[in-house]
């Protein structure tokens, strides 16, 4: 049989190709038809709304309401949970809107989420003409199409014996040999998976006791419900209502062989594929299939989130906790998560082409950003990454995407570079980026040159003794506990805050992080005992995510950490619209090279622009109901109340505070500022605009960042 020949899609009608999987016995040859149909996507429901707030106002006393990760409302009064409003006469909004909308869609199909596998393992399947093709060309015979063996396995297991199944499958529905079509169809994949009646996740053939693992996940996932704000509640009418509070994994399963089966199932390639992030997050309904066994994605997702917070019994695979942690990252992604959070996810995933690191999440990005990115596989990966950065800065008004860059303002998303976290600091206050894009290699930003790097450590590795010696050499040489840091803190506190990256209960009061006093104990002992003590006797250092970074000290005496490319003589700058201090290297009289973002204690709350906080004042982190970060200021005279930044002064008379649509997700309502004369809405503080800062004497300057080869 001749190879199948694709015909162009009709872009005017929005055509897509669908695969009709023809019925047959399990061992029969795979036979399909390929049909084209006009496609109008299901309208995207905004990721944020005020329905939960409205529901909470209608609750009887003693009841609470929460939104689950799937968008349902669960009601809780302590002993009881239910998906039904406790007031039987309540007639408010439904949370099954997407399911009801799917029932109105005329084009009914399922979408397959799977891994391609090796090109070396391909199998021929038969493509038979459709009825329409027979009418147009009665002599037309069947063709062949090569598919990867993993897809062939999936089709055998999905095929029914009596009825056809209509599927959208990327390897077949897109002409992979046509770069232009691939680019055009890739931009529609988010709409396709969101509009599918069901998404089928194919994990592969049954093996390594996968049946037992899926049964475990299905049962565990039916006991516990996880809310958007990270509460755990017993699932309504579950068999084990007390499981939501369990932290000992042995109470779920004590058999080491079961934990080994769980480890092997979570190690399957599907979980690491970059495209599955968008495919599963956008799915309105999804099942997970391994061989003939199936469970709901909701069950698997809930079980993974539950296992993240348990201790596994003796005999479990040593790497199981780290594996569950990685899978939990996927389980936590929702539409509306920050762009930076999603970029962290794709940087950990596997891909076929570097372009996919951007194109694979277009359906998850805010439209104000995604519409500025046009998929083109004919362009270079660097052009794709550059365009993504510009789209983010323009859409978000922020330079925070530079956290993924080093040695150039254009990041290479192929490098799995660690970063300091998304939006949990405010080194430039509540400012917006003051920038311009001059040409293909020049990004002009505005900020201050604050300090210069004086000394740099060797590369930090996973060795507490080496790290402590580098701290002594770079930060504490000649210092004493009585000596003060530039902002007045003790040196041991400065060490603890940098190494702990503010992940302490003092900064995040509602967390289980260690206290600052606990974190700084090794540094206090080191200052008191010098270098002669036995570092092996010290408690383990609290240093989340700092392996392969370098310590540095500045001319003014600040301590910081940065990616490994930092050098003495580099400039510490604070750029408007960037949450972290940046390191800049002079290239010429008028041009600079972006080296990387850094974490510097004493410069994370706007000090480089506004000066230090008054004596006794401190900042704490706060996450609002949307999960967005806000820095709160605490006045020592009234510590129980959050105050405004005392350095800013009163709001100008022509500006007022308002609640307005968010810049990236308009359905989300956020605090903003409005000009009473012009009506202009600002999501940044007008007191942090360039002109306002210059008026108060801040020495702002331009940094002309050039793209230079690494």
TrEMBL record:
| InterPro entries in the record | HET, HetReg/Transcr_Mod
Coiled-coil segments on the chain, per record = none
Domain called Heterokaryon incompatibility: residue spans = 109-279
Annotated Pfam families: HET
What is this protein's name? HET-domain-containing protein
Q: State the species of origin.
A: Ophiobolus disseminans
From the broadest rank down, the organism's phylogenetic lineage runs: Eukaryota, Fungi, Dikarya, Ascomycota, Pezizomycotina
